[in-house]
Write a structure and sequence with these properties.
By secondary structure, the chain is of the alpha+beta class. It has one domain: Beta-grasp domain (Ubiquitin-like (UB roll), Roll), CATH 3.10.20.30. The protein is built from three helices and five strands; from the N terminus they run ββαβααββ. β1 and β2 form a beta hairpin. The longest helix is centred in the N-terminal third of the chain and has 7 residues. The radius of gyration is 12 Å and the shape is globular. The protein starts with a strand and ends in a 6-residue tail after the last strand.
């Protein structure tokens, strides 16, 4: 199991246990993390699963694919650390990952 912490804009933290091979979005939805809407269910066509990767983790998580980058154009307040959480696969080396939930989706 991989520990992933989601931080809401108001600072509330949600510590979750993520299954290897699932996605970060699925982990958030399964744990009822507020602010991760995931309208398209992980097909990379809605941009409502937008998160900011914590500065300490951007290198390990890596950047978005071209398709994800195109979709991120539709997200709210996109930053360098923006990712669509349905496109981040859970893997053991991400144990301890911290992600920040944006104020709004889409
Ligand atoms: Fe729709 Fe991620 S869930 S783009």
């Amino acid at each position: 199991m991989t520990k992933i912490t989601f931080v809401e804009p108001n600072g509330t933290q949600h510590e979750t246990e993520a299954e290897t091979g699932s996605t970060v979005m699925e982990t958030a939805v399964r744990n009822g993390v507020p602010g991760i809407v995931a309208e398209c269910g992980g097909a990379c066509t809605c941009a409502t699963c937008h998160v900011y990767v914590d500065d300490a983790w951007t290198e390990k998580v890596g950047g978005p694919s071209v398709m994800e980058e195109d979709m991120l154009d539709f997200a709210f307040d996109v930053r360098d650390s923006s990712r669509l959480s349905c496109q981040i696969k859970v893997r053991e080396e991400l144990d301890g990952l911290v992600l920040h939930v944006p104020e709004n989706q889409g």
